[in-house]
Give the backbone structure.
Amino acid sequence: QQAAVWQRTLEAENVRQKGVIDILPYVFATKPEDFDQDVWKKKKQALGQEIQLWEWYLAKQKPGSHIAGPDFTIADATFWPSLAFLVQMGVPLQSCCPHLVKYYEMVKQRPSVEETWPPHWKTTPSPGLLKDVF
């Protein structure tokens, strides 16, 4: 399990890169006249493929498992914030990622997550920025 923990911990950066770093600056910092729909589509496709990879990782685990096995590890602590952010941005996990949905609901119930959940996420609806990622 230790090798899987390290591998998923390092790979979690891919989710952050494709889901946060590549998308947010493009959406919020690109001038409307420079916004290219083809570039936007490719960024969303890359994110969708990455999310599908993580769905596959979880599908290989036993029910109720975490990202790298039965225990909550640094891999989960690294992956979780990006997943939570993507869900808040409207990624429709329910449409294609049943394992990620179960994982999301399981981790969201952890006391440490409940205590640190951004208060405005509880009251503000998702902007739906990534509702069509799949």
User: Anything to note?
Assistant: The chain has seven helices and no strands. The mean pLDDT is 95. The first helix runs from residue 2 to 21. The radius of gyration is 15 Å.
